Amino acid sequence: MTHHTAATLTLHEFSDDLAHHFHDINAEWINAMFRLEDADREVLQHPRRSIIDKGGVILFVEAEGLGIVGTCALQKSNGNGYELTKMGVLERARGLKVGEFLLAAMIDRAAELQASPLYLLSNAKCAAAIHLYEKAGFRHDAEIMATYGARYQRCDVAMRYLP
């Protein structure tokens, strides 16, 4: 196994020519752990219509020598709420701190958008991701679960960002 250290990571804004990475990166991890649900398919197949055109954000991370290896979205919900969603990193780029880099960028972008609440929905099987979210300031939240959790069958974790 090759270890990459201190790879140069670069952020990219959404563009239609990068949309296939949003689909492929997320489909890889969702299919590995769960199964794609209708809500996933709609967002992954139509990211511009589902996220960008509704006031959301999709960012990509490029790792030097590896290309686009990670992506994440902020999907606008009611009021000025945003869901941090569809955060994925390709298996071949794990260990490069892509997730931390991407999560920090998304939290900064959410602050610019004055997102309130900033929340996420997940599953307990995603233990590494949940640990990353906790380290970044997300806390488990029953109100978020009650309000948004029914969106995905697999959702058993709901968290709110508390800066």
TrEMBL record:
Q: Does the keyword Transferase apply?
A: yes
Stored PROSITE patterns: GNAT
> What is the protein name for this chain?
GNAT family N-acetyltransferase
Query: Which keywords does this chain's UniProt record carry?
Result: Transferase
Q: Where is the N-acetyltransferase domain?
A: 9-163
Pfam families named among the record's database cross-references: Acetyltransf_7
Q: Which PANTHER family match?
A: GNAT FAMILY N-ACETYLTRANSFERASE, LD18367P
| Organism of derivation | Stenotrophomonas oahuensis
